[in-house]
Design goal:
The protein is of the alpha+beta class. The protein contains 19 helices and eleven strands. β9 and β10 form a beta hairpin. The longest helix has about 30 residues. The protein starts with a helix and ends with a strand.
C-alpha cells in the first residue's frame, strides 16, 4: 500500500509539473526550452555562465516571433520581441501593464517602498509628488554641485600625470567614483571626495553593492525571489533575511535629516526637496521663492516617513550610480576606437565653451551643456548599444488581447522586455555593433524610433532621466576638454557574470590618455 501511494504521488506530481512546464506549447506559443526543468531560462544564470540580461538577449536573437514563452524557475513569463507591441504595452495600453510584479512590502519592509517597486495608485501618488524634484529649474540649481564633482575628477587625473606623458586609465573605475560622488552629493546631500578619500562610508557601501557584494546565501536567494517569486521574498523578509547595506543607507539619511533640521541647514539637493515634501506635503515649483526654504512640522503632521525618503534615495542611488558610470565609461571607450568621432566631439566642446566665454578648467554652465548637440547624439548612441538596464519587466494587470494574434495575455503574467537585444537588432538599428551617433541626427534618423527606449517608456519611464544625462555630459565635457585619447583597435566589450541586473565589463575599460 505504501509503495502504491508513493508511485501514485510521483505520477501526480510528474503530471502537475509536466502540465505546468508545457503551458506555452499547449497555447501554441513559441517556447524557449533550452533549460532543464525547473530552472528554465535561468539555468545559465545559476551556473554563473551569463548574467540574466544577456540570457534574455540570447532568447531574443534565437526567435523571430512577436512573443516567446519562457520559464524562470516555476514562474512562466512572456518575452516580447516586437518593438511596436513593447511600446503599446508601456504606453497606450499601460492600464493593462501598470505594475512591475516585483516584491514590495510597505508595512514590514518600508525600504522596499520606492517608485520602482510600488504598485497601482500608491505608485501613481508618489510619482506625482516626486516629479517636481527633477524640473529644469531644480537641475539648474543643483548643477554647481555636479560641476564641482567633475572638477575633482579632473584634478585627481591631472595629479597622476607627468607633463607630456600618457597614462592608462580604467574609465569604468574612474566613472564609478565620479558617479558615486554625484549621487552622494546631489541626492543624499553629503560632502564627498572619493577621489582623495576612497574609503569614505558612502563609497565603501557602493563597492559592497556592485563590486564586492558580501551577501550570504539566503540574501542572494532573497534578491532572486524579489523578482522571481515575491511571496517567498515576503517570507524571507519576515524571517529577518535583509540586506544590511540598505539599512546603513537609512541610517545615513536619518542622521543627515536630523542634523539639517536641528541646525537649520539648507542645501540645494534632492534630499532637501524630500525634506520639504515630508514637512509640507508638496515640493514647490520653480517659480516659488521658497523652493529651497527649510520648513518644519510637528511629527504627527509629516506627510511621508524617513523610511520612504530613504527607500527612494536608495532607488536613485542604485539606479543612478551604475547607469551614469557605465554610460560615461562606454562612451569614452567607444571614442577611443573612433578617432573621427572623438575629434568632432572635442571640436564641439571647444567651440561651445568659447561661445559661452567659459575656459577649460573653469566652471561649466547648464546652458552651455545644452548647446552640445553632437555630444547628445553620442550619449544616445552609447545608451542604445549599452542600455543601463539590459531588460525591463512588467506584469499584466488585466487580460490583454495581443493585436494580430489569437492570444490573450492573462492577468498576473510576467512580461520581459529584452532591451539589450532590441537595441542591437539590425532590423531596428542598421549596423548595430558600429558606433554611429549620426543615426540619431534629426536630419538623418537612420533607426526605428519605436525600438529606442533606454529610459523605459510611458508613465513608468525613468523619473530622473534628465538628471542622469546632465551628470553624464558634465563628466564627458570635463574629460574631453582636458585630455586626448589614444586611438586603439576595435574590440567589443565582454561582460562578466554578476547577480545584479546591470552589465559589468570584464577586465574594466582601459584607455590611454594624454593631457591636451
Amino acid at each position: 500500500m505504501l509503495l502504491f501511494i508513493f508511485i501514485l504521488s510521483v505520477i501526480i506530481i510528474y503530471s502537475i509539473v509536466k502540465r505546468h512546464y508545457s503551458q506555452w506549447q499547449r497555447l501554441g506559443i513559441a517556447t524557449d526550452d533550452s533549460g532543464p526543468v525547473p530552472l528554465g531560462c535561468l539555468h545559465r544564470v545559476m551556473k554563473k555562465e551569463k548574467p540574466l540580461g544577456l540570457v534574455f538577449s540570447d532568447i531574443y536573437k534565437n526567435y523571430e516571433e512577436k512573443i516567446v514563452g519562457i520559464y524562470m524557475l516555476f514562474k512562466p513569463a512572456i518575452l516580447v520581441r516586437d518593438a511596436a507591441l513593447i511600446r503599446q504595452i508601456m504606453t497606450t495600453d499601460f492600464g493593462s501593464f501598470h505594475d512591475r510584479g516585483v516584491y514590495v512590502d510597505e508595512k514590514y519592509d518600508p525600504l522596499s517602498s520606492h517608485l520602482f517597486n510600488l504598485k497601482g495608485q500608491t505608485w501613481r501618488t508618489l510619482r506625482a509628488k516626486l516629479t517636481p524634484s527633477f524640473s529644469s529649474g531644480k537641475l539648474k540649481a543643483m548643477f554647481e554641485t555636479v560641476d564641482e564633482v567633475g572638477d575633482k575628477m579632473i584634478k585627481h587625473l591631472l595629479g597622476q600625470m607627468e607633463d607630456g606623458g600618457t597614462k592608462q586609465v580604467d574609465v569604468k573605475d574612474l566613472a564609478t567614483t565620479y558617479a558615486v560622488d554625484i549621487i552622494g552629493s546631489v541626492i543624499f546631500g553629503l560632502e564627498l571626495d572619493s577621489f582623495s578619500n576612497p574609503n569614505n562610508e558612502f563609497h565603501l557601501m557602493s563597492d559592497g553593492l556592485f563590486k564586492n557584494p558580501k551577501s550570504n546565501f539566503l540574501q542572494q536567494i532573497r534578491h532572486v525571489m524579489n523578482f522571481i517569486c515575491p511571496p517567498i521574498a515576503h517570507l524571507l523578509c519576515r524571517l529577518g533575511v535583509n540586506d544590511p547595506i540598505t539599512f546603513s543607507i537609512r541610517d545615513i539619511v536619518q542622521r543627515t535629516i536630523e542634523f539639517r533640521e536641528k541646525n537649520n541647514v539648507v542645501r540645494k539637493d534632492l534630499l532637501q526637496l524630500l525634506i520639504q515634501l515630508r514637512n509640507t506635503g508638496k515640493i514647490s515649483d520653480d517659480t516659488d521663492d521658497s523652493v529651497w526654504r527649510s520648513e518644519s512640522a510637528a511629527e504627527n503632521l509629516k506627510s511621508i516617513s524617513i523610511d520612504v525618503i530613504a527607500a527612494n534615495l536608495l532607488l536613485f542611488y542604485i539606479a543612478g550610480s551604475e547607469t551614469t558610470s557605465a554610460t560615461i565609461a562606454f562612451t569614452l571607450y567607444e571614442l577611443a576606437m573612433y578617432p573621427e568621432i572623438l575629434a568632432k566631439v572635442q571640436l564641439e566642446i571647444d567651440s561651445t565653451l568659447a561661445k559661452h566665454n567659459l575656459r577649460v578648467g573653469g566652471p561649466l554652465s547648464y546652458d552651455a551643456l545644452k548647446d552640445m548637440k553632437y555630444l547628445d547624439l553620442c550619449v544616445m548612441e552609447t545608451m542604445r548599444k549599452y542600455p543601463g538596464l539590459p531588460f525591463l519587466n512588467r506584469e499584466c494587470t488585466q487580460d490583454f488581447q495581443i493585436p494580430g494574434m489569437d492570444f490573450t495575455i492573462k492577468r498576473g503574467t510576467a512580461i520581459i522586455i529584452p532591451l539589450f537585444g532590441l537595441h542591437r537588432d539590425p532590423e531596428y538599428f542598421p549596423q548595430p555593433m558600429d558606433y554611429i551617433p549620426e543615426r540619431f541626427d534629426r536630419d538623418i534618423i537612420n533607426y526605428n524610433p519605436m525600438a529606442y527606449m533606454p529610459f523605459g517608456e510611458g508613465p513608468r519611464h525613468c523619473i530622473a532621466q534628465r538628471m542622469g544625462v546632465v551628470n553624464v555630459k558634465v563628466a564627458l565635457v570635463k574629460f574631453l576638454a582636458n585630455f586626448s585619447i589614444e586611438t586603439m583597435e576595435r574590440k567589443e566589450v565582454e561582460f562578466k557574470f554578476h547577480t545584479t541586473p546591470i552589465l559589468l565589463p570584464k577586465g574594466g575599460l582601459p584607455i590611454t590618455i594624454k593631457r591636451r
